[in-house]
Structures
1.
Amino acid sequence: MKNIDSYTHTRGESIYLDDIAEISGTLFGACFDSPVAHGIIKNLDLSEAENMNGVVKIFTHNDIPGRNEIGGIIEDEPLLADHHVHFCGMPIAFVVAETSEHAYAAIKKIKIEIEPLPVITDPRVAKEKNELIIPPRTFKIGDTASSFSTCDYIFEGRADSNGQEHLYIETQGAYTVPLENGAIKIYSSTQGPTAVQRACSKVLAIPMHQLEVDVTRLGGGFGGKEDQANAWAALSALATYCTKRPVKYILNRMEDMRMTGKRHPYSSDFKIGLNKELKIIAYEVVFYQNAGAAADLSPAVMERTLFHCTNSYFIPNVNATAYSCRTNLPPNTAFRGFGGPQGMFAIECAIAKAAAELKIDASEIQKINLIKTGDEFVYGQIAASEANECWQKAEQLYDVEKLQAEVRKFNSENGLFKKGIAIQPICFGISFTKTLMNNARSLVHVYSDGSVNISTGAVEMGQGVNTKILQVAQSIFSIPAEHIKVNSTNTFRIANTSPSAASATADLNGKATLLACNAILTRLKIVAAEALKSDPEKIELKNEFVFADRKKSEITWKQLVSMAFVKRVNLSEHAHHATPDIHFDATKEKGHPFAYHVYGTAILTATVDCLRGTYEFDSVKVVHDFGQSMNEIIDRGQCEGGIVQGIGWMTMEEIIYGKEGKLKSNALSTYKVPDVYSAPKEIAIHFLETKNNSLAIFNSKAVGEPPLMYGIGAYFALRNAVLAYNPNSVIPYDAPMTPEKVLLSLHQGK
Ligand code: MTE
Ligand code: HPA
Ligand code: MOS
């Protein structure tokens, strides 16, 4: 089944935030944000701006009726700066005017004096100064201290990975409309409608039942709208609350890049110990997470870094410590993988370093350390592993030895072009790491004409979750897709939702939908059994007809619904699903936090132009554990998109802040994301079918985030190509491996 949005997407008819018809009287917002990264506001002069044509009001922290606070996990983030600014781009004042042009003209007339304070941009410096968001956490298993002495080889090093701009096509924004009695309807481009509702409730000091957040779909979120859609909705709602008029505020691209947080850059120190057989005996790692100026989701992201610090390997002795470091950058946030990729990059660097020192291929170490069923993860969960299956299938299917031989042959025959190959296994835990968040609800209505309308907490952001939810209802009721509509996500219909995140949206909301549909089906079967003088257990619905005792009856789906309606049977259901069996004890850092893990192996080949430092990815060949995919088109799309986004993070997207904390890569002219030309020439994806995944919806494993981490292999493929040209090059483990870094490493010392 195709994505149900493909028809309107390709015709340009899909409705995004900015496509919502504007109500007359709508005002337009613009934000005045801090020009410096750290300082004390000495004077803010709004007088000239306030008198500008078309300006209705300028809001500062003094105008907030409730609390000037939008921090989700920790209450440490003002919506509008009071006397202190903590990062460049921090909102200070919010202008609303009759048109957007009037609002932006007024912004230019705001005058501010800020007394600068010292700026920290480096997480290691922040750690030295004890600028930590939360106390450090350590995950451990076995005993590294004693086991290093038994190792034959020990290697140490440092790994750095940079941030990443989400670059959703639809920028952040909100449109807020006054309802009667002080209620407000908030259209928001958010992954977390409830998070927006909660933040606005706090800022305005009105109960959540007054705030209807509605989301039709997003033009991408990638984690950037899990928590960071809140501020724009709160500013807009504040203006609506005070002016009693609709207010629209949509950031332009440069504002979005400057004012919002990104993937967390990490700097890490590692120490790895192996025995003669290349078994990894011990691993120590310290992570310095660059959190930015406020907590945002950093504590949760840091936690997932620790969960994934051994990737898909079993290591008996591990000690992993993470520091969430406060710097003067915009607060960094969720981004596809949620800290997992950063943890996995460090262990891959440690393995690569060991392989380089031992003059062997990293895959020799990777392969023999893959986690097996029954092995224990650092956090105590016992693996039900597909790591070896994925690796072996990839080795066979894609003939890895032949690929490696081809690369060696190419390199021996070519002077100015070199190829590099890398194998990248992945392992990703599915569930919110915060156990309480793993729940969802679905509201299903069957109308008297037999058409079906479904509301859940799931937000469609391009990942195809609405299509999967529709498929659930379709398979239970056995009716065509045209009879089913998946509604917008709305806090008045579905309450207390977790954000659409952690790749778990289809599992959680799909399972709730399954429960709701089954409850209605059970009632319909009783009606059918009465009419056909049969037993409810013997009734089945197939292709719009009722079957009794396997025999097709004359009764259609529509007739059955109509009969039930006449009999006053309830044709609606609201169902709740909470993932069973998961738990985690943060005092011990042990438990069983994930419903299941997703595994996979990718083989990546790159060709480097050794004169120019430019490169291409020849192919990415993947064996991915999908469970039993319920939609191969969507799942393939998620893999391809994740892979290209991961390659972008590791090889070309370079976020640069100046020492003074100003974003230099602040537009698409200075920040390069992969385009169709830089995507791999070939992406081959083999669907490995695996069983026993009952916590996945229809056994179809979550697919949103895991494939991004295949991109880590792109970094190592490039490194290997550079080293084929210049074996003596000393290349720090410092991603992204941009063309500039490739060029310098190629010719280093030559
Ligand atoms: N795919 C598209 N097209 N757009 C997105 O914004 N977000 C990713 C992933 N795939 C995203 C996407 C992220 S960060 C997550 S957590 C999952 O989708 C969320 O959706 P799911 O839980 O339904 O997989
Ligand atoms: N993943 C993604 N988003 C989250 C998580 C998580 O584990 N926890 C809280 N938000
Ligand atoms: Mo995804 S980073 O969990 O929104």
Note: The chain has a mean pLDDT of 98.
2.
Amino acid sequence: MPQSNDKKLIFSGIQPTGTFTLGNYIGAIRNWGPLQEDYNCVYSIVDLHAITVRQDPAKLRQNTLQAYALLLACGIDPEKSIAFIQSHNVNHAELSWVLACTTQFGELSRMTQFKDKSAKHANDVNAGLFTYPVLMAADILAYNADLVPIGVDQKQHLELARNIAARFNQRYGEFFTLPEPYIPKTGAKIMSLQDPDKKMSKSDDNPNACVLILDDKDTIIRKFKRAVTDSESVVCYGEGKSGINNLMTIYSAVTGKSFDEITSEFAGKGYGDFKLAVGEAVADHLEPVRTAYAKLIADKAYLKDCYTKGSESAMKITRKVLTKVYHKVGFVDQR
Ligand code: TYM
């Protein structure tokens, strides 16, 4: 995993809570592979974040390995990037503590994801759920990352990371780079297929709302055929057509066609034809990911080798940063 000094650094992470959704894929992961050519990239399966909601330990372990295999199947090349499991690098949690001491209670209270998640998990509003964005800031700042590729739903957390970095710099002297978000122009918020005014999410109770990237072709087509749309019949992007807008965004993301091209392609045809075409295009697009995943998940020794080397490289970069941070805040140097 060669890291070059003259390239900017990218960090991003994804939670290992079951298979990735089409939203994770279009909004984030599929952009990660191409960035490897021009940037030093660090990608992590963020298992520390996952335990902010109750997890079955055996399932979490399995999901984490699967998520790691899926990351590689989506084009992250461990020879080009650092790809590791977050809990294998203790520096994230250590830096998180220091940053927590430069983060205000009020700032964390304003995070919309905290409000949503604490309403959803009302019987387990734990401190980790509240301080989650501080850990996310530590993930990014531990590498002094320049860019963070994310979907729109993580923008507020990134803004907080920038504020935490700026406050630290103000208190202790310029040190952290202020990270920029890298949000795709189309597909930064893929919506539910059953309620297109809501984000597509793996925690949706309705299985038809969400396409998983390991779903087989028939399942994908069935979910798209059942997608909720409006009562018109013309395939075009517009106000009040959130279902069709979402399907057009997805179709555009997997075929590379513009909205105008899509409208011409389906002129004179109905929504039924369009939904079928979207389902087929998505299934065909994801086929190589499914094939690569099947091979990778069967080779646990290879995966272990990759994530071990990944965390070793991640530790090296972040230990240097953390040593400087400890010095800046006034801890006694170890040697
Ligand atoms: P997570 O695991 O929820 O999602 C991973 C990435 O997928 C994007 N995403 C979507 N994009 C478009 N449409 C959707 N429906 C959709 N759903 C999810 C997310 O925006 C995200 O980019 N807190 C983060 C993980 C994290 C992280 C980090 C990210 C931890 N540390 C540091 C960047 C940098 C999260 O829970 O993402």
Note: The pocket of tryptophanyl-5'AMP is lined by residues 11-15, 23-24, 27-28, 46, 49, 136, 139-140, 148, 150-151, 153-154, 157, 188-190, 199-200 (CB under 6 Å).
3.
Amino acid sequence: MSVLELGDVNGYYGNSHILFDLDLEVEQNEVVALLGRNGAGKTTTLRTITGTIPSREGTIEFRGDDISGDSVDAISNRGVKLVPEERRVFPTLTVTENMKVARDMTAGDARDIEEMYDVFPVLDELRENRGRNLSGGEQQMLSVARALIQDPDLLLLDEPTEGLAPVIVDDLYDVLSDVVDRDVTVLITEQNVDFALDLAERAYIIDKGSNAWEGTVDQLHEREDLLDEYLSVGSVEAD
Ligand code: ATP
């Protein structure tokens, strides 16, 4: 059974029709990349899954249950956790306090804060620092750690590299590779195609809110034409 299955999903902001009959599937322990250029509808897709955009049609199944009419809280309590593009760490709380809040909000079993510090050594050194004093990369790590401490059944990462310096992107890549090695199911959106494809096994390309292509990452490495057509990038290096 799939962890997540979208069938003919349409999404709207008010009267603006953004997603058109979108299909998407994520299997257990898979890392799936959702790619597309600026404004293609990647964030909207994630928000539609989490219920943040209530105006949705079609089927959204999580572990076989239709969640398309469920509230944000109900979907979160099922273990669907979004790390939003804008990060949203609590600025006045320390790193540890930020993690405690996430841990205490968990509906099911939460993970241990010390376990998170093992995964995120950068945060270990910053335990007592307040959110507002962290760099963009450190905030992104904290944002991912807060989602992970809730032991998500499905982790949604919205453009995690957005605005980060290349050296920080490398650090984030190391951490996320470690995370996905721990059998976490992930749907990741990225404009940084190389970053996403290095982590993922399968990919979807969406264009103007519709499915444009789907396949394995290996297949996509053979299709530079798609990258030119839909992602406006020159090339992707195979591993
Ligand atoms: P980006 O990389 O820019 O985040 P994206 O693929 O995530 O791109 P979305 O943010 O999902 O794209 O935006 C899809 C479309 O929805 C765009 O045309 C955008 O202008 C529109 N849109 C986004 N947010 C809203 C909103 N709150 N109200 C109305 N339209 C919106």
Note: Residues 13, 16, 18, 36, 38-44, 191 surround adenosine-5'-triphosphate (CB under 6 Å).
